[in-house]
Amino acid sequence: MSVADRIARALLTPGGHLSIGRGGFTLHYDNCRLSGYDCDEVKVEAIAAGLPVIDTRLVPFSLAAKLAVHGPMIAVNKNPDAAPWNGFSSAPLAAVATAYRQVGADVHNIADCSKARLWFADHPLAPLDDLLDGWLAHVLRHEEAISIDLEEPVA
Description:
Blueprint: H1 3-12, E1 17-21, E2 24-29, E3 32-36, H2 39-49, E4 53-55, H3 61-70, E5 73-74, E6 90-91, H4 93-102, E7 106-108, H5 114-121, H6 128-141, H7 143-146
Parallel strand pairs: 1-4, 5-6
Antiparallel strand pairs: 1-2, 2-3, 4-7
């Protein structure tokens, strides 16, 4: 099966997306993952197809690691867990992508989660590491504050 075929399957998978980091790419689809190292080629193909993409290669390592370890995972082909979320729970793609976008990730084909965006907008500018600590603490404490409408449109 070609990468294009797997991208097509990811487009049909709830939460399907391409994540790219310093160690390569992972294409999340069905109940599968495809990993590799041709990051830029796969990224161009995925964006052109309309697949959600989160590229963290330019995010400071400490911030990317903090989100990856302490933040929620993306719910792929399953219902997200109810908020509040932690490092062992699954959240909607839009909520996780919003946090990555806030720390400088290159995010494509994913609309911001409106409630997560509002949280970031309501907090004064601070060093990104401190801001991210605040957001992670917030999603751990507030079940209602970050829950989102799973029918939010993808931009």
